[in-house]
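Form 7-S
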Amino acid sequence: MPQKLRPAGYPEFLKKKIPKGGHANRVREILSRLRLTTVCESAKCPNLGECFGSQTATFMILGDTCTRNCVFCGVNHGLPKSVESDEPQRIAEAVKLLSLRHVVVTSVTRDDLDDGGASHFAAVVKAVREETSATVEILTPDFGGRRESILTVAKAQPDIFNHNVETVPRLYPRVRPQADYRRSLDLLRTVKEGDSLILTKSGLMVGLGETFDEVVDLLRDLRGVGCEIITIGQYLRPTADSLEIARFVTPQEFEQLEKKALELGFRAAKCGPFVRSSYQAAEVLQNLRKQ
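Output:
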């Protein structure tokens, strides 16, 4: 089992206190009883305590084992288990029990499935919509670039369709060797072509060796395919076997990136050391609907 890292030597702005009290134990009990997985736990997210304590979680469907092996990710990789057909209903039940007003659903990459898991994503959106009044945000893999899979999910009409580019194109061979930057951009473009009313979103990590100008170029690329929401956060090694951190990006640099993103036309930008794709996602959508 990979050894967990301790934040020794991290700058002060990357040291986070674990919230006390809240609803964390209840969230864990519900997830366990319904046999549900969260990316919060699987990816060793630094915001887990905060989110569980406020009774929110990001559901991870299609199992907890990924068919890819990205060097930045803490999720297990290997041969996944069979898809559980009742998972969409279990997600919907958890949403009701947790009284969620906004649901974020992601998955491992399932290159072993013919549609990459697209029909399962669509089933989850449908189940949540039928059983609750919550808005739905999905964070998908690239489905191998299959247009029909992307459109299958878009036709389910999630409120937000998120797909992360993760890093600048120059670093893909080292950081995401099984992914393709242009394929990810094409996915976001395809969603907009399928349904222009769906909000599209993407995210990336910094601190991997990218330059400020490379990030700005990436932001321009995302705007070029109609992406409206961007999240940018500091890369933190989830395990000792993961890619090393190239540098710590300061809060001031994150402020500059957020300002630049808004100047380029993003409707919402959330940038900061602890920002992750689904961090405060409900608030982002709520603010957008006030615009």
